[in-house]
Amino acid sequence: MAFVKITEQPSLYDNLEEKSVREILQDINTEDQKVALAVQKAIPQIEKLVTQIVPRMKQGGRIFYLGAGTSGRLGVLDASEIPPTFGMPPSLVIGLIAGGDTALRNPVENAEDDMNRGWEELQEHGVNNLDTVIGIAASGTTPYVVGALRAARAHGILTASISSNPDSPIAHEADVPIEMIVGPEFVTGSSRMKSGTGQKMILNMISTSVMIQLGRVKGNRMVNMQLTNQKLVDRGTRMVADELGLDYEQAKRLLLLHGSVKKAVDAWHTSQNK
Length: 274
Description:
This is N-acetylmuramic acid 6-phosphate etherase. The protein has 274 residues and is of the alpha/beta class. It contains 10 helices and 5 strands.
């Protein structure tokens, strides 16, 4: 099958500048409703990836996300949310973006066209065969991502890709290709829209399911979250109070003493069993 860039196909809508604000919003929403269904079709591949990541991470492996532009920013975003949400060190899920941190806010000219830089950055982090490298590119053609996946795979490292075009170059470099076919964007070629939304959903699914499998959630609660603001202290206090049947102030003292819901609950049970 010839490679076709659906992400560059003309929008299903035209004369956008002549539409009312309500029409624009409704049409964008109509397109957005297609995203979750496209992601649903990719669940078997996402499952295949997660079940291979978990045993690697139990042995000390890490997840690397690589992307350029929107794709890179979304990888960095998901990685940056793991420590506060699940209490994991920031060294376990790492987001790399073409052009470095400057590219989070500003475009860096030609950064995504460097076929070698992604692998060089992975080597700077000491990438090894317990790690997983996940390349993100709506087009599926970004050289920064393609080159990194190709080199990682050649070194026996588990690779995966997330793209919005079928049979793309990054899919050919991945052990586990994830293809989320959302169709043409509302604004032609603007893959920050449906493709970006779908990427965010898939990254959430990967990282959240991995963290649950690694024991970072109890019941349905973030028992390892970092207590970085009053909202989270309050949430944690209520978790401890509910779990142990303590009043609010008792629970808060216990939580702040031990630093996480899980440690507070474990310490309480230990003290009660002595």
